[in-house]
Predict the 3D structure of the following.
Amino acid sequence: MRVTADPDGLGLASVPFPKSSLLKLELSDSFNHMILPSSLPDSITVLTLGFYYNQPINVNTLPKSLNTLTFGQKYRFNSIIAPDSLPHTLIQLKFGKIFSKLTDKLLSSLPMLNSLSFGFGIVGPLTPGSLPPSLQTLDIERSPRLIVDDPQSIPPALTKLSVFAQSQVSPFPLHLLSLRIYEIDDITLVPGSLPSSLTELIIVSRIKIVLSPGSLPQSLQSLILSGRMDQELAQGTLPPSLTLLCLPDNCTLNIVDTIPLGLRSLSIAGVHLVKYFEQLTHLEHVELKLPCDLDDTNISTLKCNRLKFTVKSIYVDCDPSMDFTFATRTTTPDELLAVITRAIRAFPNVDTFEVVQELHSTHLIRAIDNNQFLHLHSNHSFKLITLSS
């Protein structure tokens, strides 16, 4: 259910809530009335406050069954939250961008809190005992002024962490399973810089990512990189445990490392990197992220169940009197068929092709046999493609 601002100024008192069946409530961006005791049904388990909401949270005003409370990333909430006003049933809590009025024991008294997200307004070091021991997921990626330099500040149950920079938390908890790092500068990983327990690592860098041999934990299963890479992946860089690998779009690599044989999902910039993965026999999904032209004169032995790629838009000349000299259009059906045919010929060991037209639609092409393929359009139409000899 969604509630907007009411013209009578009566707030939630004028809303005829169903008292026992309402589970989810979203207050619209324009709503900014104080929540009074008993104005919300206790049946609500998910509550989202809107953009302009900036009223104090008092005792006995939030539903007693609430388990998810969201202020949102860009919301303006920065009012006082009274002690013991947050229900002990809370499991997930996400503060808004500017919220800064975090008081002692506000969060540590929540025995079931599992997931917590802060915004830019939170400042200073995180002190021991300020977070509940039940916390498993902590997101401080939007909180560059929050520093965690005391290991005792990290709850023992924490397994998933998102940070603004590699140096924001020092050292990283030894029991982490998932780590996301957003870095505005270069990021260089060296042996010992990451917990050996990690199974998932996501790095988003605005400049450059450098991986050193032995820097990635041997337990790592999922590696997602976004930024710029221009290096040689030497022997011992990629752990053999990897099953998912996503390399950056801006990527110039010379891979001399042994590719993990257990790799199941692969996302790479384009066809120029395919050669490094042709020996793999258990790939399920491969994605070529950048729009590309496929050349059927260079046959690839890449084997996978599904290959996804995006077809380049066609550039067309415009009227010289216009402010721009060219525009783009999507491929015509005949042009698309030509691209699909080239893809089938270039990758004879792929079972299913997922072809994306930029800003348009997605097509699935599934092999029937070596010469016949079924083309399934996003509008549920289909046709048979037969390759000529």
Q: What stands out?
A: The mean pLDDT is 85.
